[in-house]
Each structure stands twice: as structure tokens, then as C-alpha cells.
TrEMBL record:
Pfam families registered for this protein in UniProt: adh_short_C2
Keywords for the protein's UniProt record, in alphabetical order: Oxidoreductase
Domain of life of the source: Eukaryota
Gene3D superfamilies per UniProt: NAD(P)-binding Rossmann-like Domain
Family: Belongs to the short-chain dehydrogenases/reductases (SDR) family.
InterPro entries in UniProt: NAD(P)-bd_dom_sf (IPR036291), Sc_DH/Rdtase_CS (IPR020904), SDR_fam (IPR002347)
Protein name according to UniProt: Dehydrogenase/reductase SDR family member 4
């Protein structure tokens, strides 16, 4: 029986750092799967976004990270560069058109183009009964979580065309399938992102641009801390999971790197759920 052996010449733990990983197939070295690619990752100085940026860079991509605050960008860039990764950073508030344009232009200026977009930015200014939510809450959530994601896609598509195609991953949530308690407007915005990915995929396929979606479940981040910091609440949430524990950001990152790689060249319009077996169907 033919046995195909893959091993890493440089191993990197899920939480650890490390420069680009060279692989070996039957003793023949092959370049990292994202070598030569340029990636933009929004909201990528902490949590899932930072883990994704780190993984893409470990797999060979040159990565532009971004956040609303300069000090957060500087800290993340410094940490990743100390790991030998090829990253740069810029401030970007995705709700501002000038910031979105600067993000894309910075990638072109520093790295020569754009091959990968990971749209990860989201806000949630409301917690409570959905009927108590205001116009302002809905405007902010939909502007940042949905409209900004779409407008950023519009900006990167011409840049991807110039390079012969690309890959887009939109970060949604299992809340898009089953709304989280007291997070109604946020959950609705995540459902919209599932639809946005489905709508974009067939239109961009002729341009050799794939569009997929990531739907994380309960992941240990600052953004979701209200759901897991209380032990009794965490225990209640995790008992409903097939894998009865909270997830880690790194467990989302590998999925995104796969979706952006040639290994996923026949996958578009799909949503990959990383939720420990939680309910994930509309």
C-alpha cells in the first residue's frame, strides 16, 4: 500500500510562534502553502484575528494586520516579527471609507498586491432584549459587521483580479444559525454574513476568486468574555457541545489558512463551523 508521509522540518505548537514552515514530501522540500501570497486581516491584533494573521504568516503569506488603535497594531506587529514572520500593520476602522482604502493601498505599497482577505471586524454595543434595541444600535452593528465587510470586498476584488484571483474568508458566527441569548442584533448581522458569502461566491467565481465563511462557536477571546468568564455560565454553555470545552483562537486559524490555500481550490460558497459540535444549521 502506498503510504504518503508528510512531516514538518520546523514544528510549531498551536500557541507558539515560528517562521514559515517548510514541508517535506518523500524527502523533497516543498514551499509553504501560502508562499508568495499577500493577506489582509481586519481586527487582527487580538483573539481570532491575531491567531489567523499568525497562522497565515507561518504558512508563508505576507500579512498586513490592522486594528482601530495604533498601540494595538504596534504591539501585534512587534510580537509577530519577533517570531520571524513577515507582517506589517496599519490602523483601520473598517466603518470609515478612507481607512478601508488606506488598508488596501498599504498592502499594495508594501507587498505589491492582495491575494487574501479575511474580514474579521465586528462590534456588539448591545446586550439585552432585542425589542429594547435602538436605531443607533442597529445602524452601528449593520454598518460595521455587514456593510463594511461588503465594501472591503469591493475594494480588494480589482486587486485580486490583477494577480489572477484570490480568496476571501468572511468571519461569521454560530450565532448566525442560532442567535445567542441577549445578542439579537449581533446574531442577525452574523446571519447576514452567511448570506453575503453565498451571494458573493457565484459572482466572483468567474474571476477565480473564492469566497467562504468561518463560523466560530464559543471561543476564548476578550470579545466573547461575557459568555465564558462566569464558570456557571460556561458550564451551562459547554454541556450542550459535543466537545465540552471552550474553543481557542488557534483552532479557527488553521481552518482559515486551509480555505485560503490551493488545498481548498475547489471550495467556494461554503461555511465551515468551528464550534465543538454545537448546533449550526438555519
Amino acid at each position: 500500500m502506498l503510504r504518503l508521509s508528510l512531516h514538518r522540518l520546523l514544528s510549531v505548537s498551536p500557541r507558539g510562534g515560528g517562521s514559515c514552515i517548510m514541508q517535506s514530501v518523500r524527502g523533497v522540500q516543498t514551499p509553504p502553502k501560502l508562499q508568495g501570497k499577500v493577506a489582509l486581516v481586519t481586527a487582527s491584533t487580538d483573539g481570532i484575528g491575531l491567531a489567523i494573521a499568525q497562522k497565515l504568516a507561518q504558512d508563508g503569506a505576507r500579512v498586513l494586520i490592522s486594528s482601530r488603535k495604533q498601540q494595538n497594531v504596534d504591539k501585534a506587529v512587534r510580537e509577530l516579527k519577533e517570531q520571524g514572520l513577515d507582517v506589517e500593520g496599519t490602523v483601520c476602522h473598517v466603518g470609515r471609507s478612507e481607512d478601508r482604502e488606506r488598508l488596501v493601498n498599504t498592502a499594495v505599497q508594501k507587498f505589491g498586491g492582495v491575494d487574501i482577505l479575511v474580514s474579521n471586524a465586528a462590534v456588539n454595543p448591545f446586550f439585552g432584549n432585542i425589542l429594547d434595541s435602538t436605531d443607533e444600535v442597529w445602524d452601528k452593528i449593520l454598518d460595521i459587521n455587514v456593510k463594511a465587510a461588503f465594501l472591503l470586498v469591493k475594494l480588494v476584488v480589482p486587486k485580486m483580479q490583477e494577480r489572477g484571483g484570490g480568496s476571501i474568508v468572511i468571519v461569521s458566527s454560530v450565532a448566525g444559525f442560532t442567535p445567542f441569548p441577549a445578542l439579537g442584533p449581533y446574531s442577525v448581522s452574523k446571519t447576514a454574513l452567511l448570506g453575503l458569502s453565498k451571494a458573493l461566491a457565484p459572482e466572483l467565481s468567474p474571476l477565480n476568486i473564492r469566497v467562504n465563511c468561518l463560523a466560530p462557536g464559543l471561543i476564548r477571546t476578550k470579545f466573547s468574555s461575557a459568555l465564558w468568564q462566569n464558570k456557571s455560565s460556561l458550564d451551562q454553555l459547554t454541556t450542550a457541545l459535543g466537545i465540552s470545552r471552550i474553543g481557542e483562537p488557534e483552532e479557527c486559524a488553521g481552518v482559515v489558512s486551509f480555505l485560503c490555500s490551493p488545498e481548498a481550490s475547489y471550495i467556494t460558497g461554503e461555511t465551515v463551523v468551528v464550534a465543538g459540535g454545537g448546533h449550526s444549521r438555519l
